[in-house]
Amino acid sequence: MPRRDHLASERTTPMARFLILIHGDDEKWGERTDEQRAAVDAAHRAFQQAGGVVASGELDDPALAKTIHGRAGERAFVTDGPFAEFKEVLGGYYEIEAADIDEAVARASTLYETSEPHVHIEVRPLVQH
C-alpha cells in the first residue's frame, strides 16, 4: 500500500504518470474478425500518435504465463497461467503522462476496447519516486 504522501492527488509535478490496464475476455478477443482486428490496430496506432505514451504493450496468451505465489513464512511457489481462474485477463497496457487522472481517464476512454462490453479499463496513478 503506498504511503499517503505518494498519492496522485497530492502530487505537485505538472505531468503525472498513469498506467492504463486493458482487461477483457481472451476468448472474445480471439473471436474478432479481420476487420475488427484492423480497427483495433488502427485505434491503438492513433492513441500512440496522440502523444504522451511512455510505454505500451500487448500481452501474449495467458496460457503462457507463470504466477509466483507468496506464502507467509514459507517458500513461494509457481503455477501455470494467470493468477486467477477468470475469463477476464490483462490483455495490454499503456503508461502515459497526463496532467491529472481526469485527463488520463478521458484519454483511456478513447480506446477501441471501450466499445466491447466484456472489457474494463483500469486507470491507475503511478507512484512518483
From TrEMBL:
InterPro entries to which the protein is assigned, alphabetical: Dimeric_a/b-barrel, YCII
Species, as recorded: Gryllotalpicola kribbensis
Pfam family, one: YCII
SUPFAM superfamilies recorded: Dimeric alpha+beta barrel (SSF54909)
Lineage: Bacteria, Bacillati, Actinomycetota, Actinomycetes, Micrococcales
UniProt similarity note: Belongs to the YciI family.
Domain YCII-related: start-end pairs: 17-109
PANTHER family in alphabetical order: BLL7171 PROTEIN (PTHR35174:SF3), BLL7171 PROTEIN-RELATED (PTHR35174)
Origin superkingdom: Bacteria
Protein name: YciI family protein
